[in-house]
Amino acid sequence: MSVSEPMLSRRQSAFFSVPVIGWIARDLKEGGPDTIYYLLVILLTLLVLAVMQWGIVALSMTALAMVPVVMVLLILITVGK
Questions:
Q1: Residue 21 gets which letter from DSSP?
Q2: CB within 8 Å of 25: residues ≥ 6 apart
Q3: pLDDT below 70 — which residues of the chain?
Q4: Which DSSP string do the residues of 26-68 spell out, in sequence order?
Q5: Contact 52/37 with Cβ under 8 angstroms?
Q6: CA 24 to CA 28: how far, in whole Å?
Q7: How far apart are CA 19 and CA 7, in angstroms?
Q8: Do 22 and 15 contact (CB within 8 A), yes or no?
Q9: What is the DSSP letter of 70?
Q10: Residue 80 and residue 25: Cα distance in Å, rounded?
């Protein structure tokens, strides 16, 4: 680590050390601008595999989990941010 790099807080360091999630989060933070598209492809692939495995239940659980996200987005659009 060089002198110009900021030190990570203990919480960030602990989060980035989690094997899979931390690697993805660190790559999103420090990687190139196309990293988010790779993450979206991975998530879409996981959704397709879940639907193939568990059927409509996986699709409905995904839709149910996205309800708060969409509500927050609608509120942000309404506020103007």
A1: H
A2: 15, 16
A3: 1-8
A4: HHHHHS-TTHHHHHHHHHHHHHHHHHHHHTHHHHHHHHHHHHH
A5: no
A6: 6
A7: 20
A8: yes
A9: H
A10: 28
